Amino acid sequence: QFRSLAQQTPDALLGLIRLFQEDHRPHKIDLGVGIFRDDQGLTPVLGAVKAAERILVEQQDSKSYLGPVGDSGFVDLTARLALGDDLATSPFLVRLQTPGGNGALRLAFELLAEASKDAVVWVGSPTWVNHFPLIASAGLESRSHRFYDPATLRIDFDGMMADLGSAKSGDVILLHGCCHNPSGATFSSSEWTELLALCQRQGLLPLIDFAYHGLGDGLEADAAPVRMFVENLPEAIVAYSCDKNFGMYRDRVGSLFVKATTHAETDAVRSQLFGTARAMWSMPPDHGAATCRIILSSPELRSVWQEELASMRERINGLRKAVANSLPQLSAVANQRGLFSLLPVSKDAVQLLREERAIYMAPDGRINIAGLSEANMPHFVQSISGYLS
Ligand code: PLP
Ligand code: TYF
């Protein structure tokens, strides 16, 4: 049977991990895969997470199945964290735990495909590499709209609005809640408001990929546009990840929130989601979600976590300023948010930087800002200055 199988193109980002490991040059810099790193280049387990895991080990008296919602305390607390108490507890909000933000996205696309086979998913260009296989796996069509302008390192908002003018009622718009991957480019609050008005005017359903909550401008500031969309539209979907803001990447911690308009529709959405999840992973993994629940429900651990989150955010935003100050062509980097920026460099330059300078970045010139440090900044600045277009 397997003779008929073709090779798939491997994920270039994940391929970089191995290439970097095999490089033994001492000055090598890993700006590849999107994980937070400290000034030593490490991604340690957060103190709040370690403490909560100890409590979990002590207190957990059973590992019996949790059921389709997953850890309901975790789901409730992340819904409140992302959406605020009122929206989170609406009877029209369906909430469930998923294996990471990736699982939430896959489930959301499956739901959308089941609801409307011919809905088009509008995706800004460029976007996170995994969005396309996720959309295609659900059998949905995606269409690109202008988003990022490499000439200004900012959002081409007029181009985006013009392209979305041809979206039809019932189409889906995939938005990054904050910390755009790969560009870091941010909407102003008036642009968010215009986008909301566009969704209202044209009957578009927003699917908000909210994978970096708190890593941009803070928990409240990052959530504000997401809440505005959920509050002011009849239907909205939020795919939430705790893998970055709690540093729990491999534990695959996420949840999905879907707002519907009537009791009957809410029930139908819930039953569809449970049915689809049953056919994919049956029930979500427990450990990471239980750990997050312990943190969010303990005032002490919650405040430890918020401080750790703030220090991750401040480190990233400090590095952004340092890059902008060292390289005038990259001054816009200071206004971007999150782990990523797209360097205006050619594909050839990306390869030369890797081969000759031991600087590893994604093929499109995406860098993980957190991979920079006080120690490697001079090598980075000196190496890329000759390649910036
Ligand atoms: N969405 C974006 C934009 C991401 O960068 C990631 C990162 O992995 C995810 C979703 C998925 O997150 P998770 O690791 O929780 O599946
Ligand atoms: O964009 C990143 O680097 C992270 C991690 O298939 C990631 O979101 C990258 C590729 C992938 C899954 C996760």
TrEMBL record:
Keywords, ordered alphabetically: Aminotransferase, Pyridoxal phosphate, Transferase
Name the record gives this protein: Aspartate/tyrosine/aromatic aminotransferase
The protein's assembly and partners: Homodimer.
GO molecular function: identical protein binding; L-aspartate:2-oxoglutarate aminotransferase activity; L-tyrosine-2-oxoglutarate transaminase activity; pyridoxal phosphate binding
Source organism of the structure: Sphingorhabdus lacus
UniProt record similarity statement: Belongs to the class-I pyridoxal-phosphate-dependent aminotransferase family.
Cofactor dependency: pyridoxal 5'-phosphate
Domain Aminotransferase class I/classII large residues, every copy: 27-384
Keyword presence, Transferase: yes
GO cellular component, one term: cytosol
GO biological process, any: L-phenylalanine biosynthetic process from chorismate via phenylpyruvate
Pfam families recorded: Aminotran_1_2
UniProt cross-references to InterPro entries, sorted A to Z: Aminotransferase_I/II_large, Asp_trans, PyrdxlP-dep_Trfase, PyrdxlP-dep_Trfase_major, PyrdxlP-dep_Trfase_small
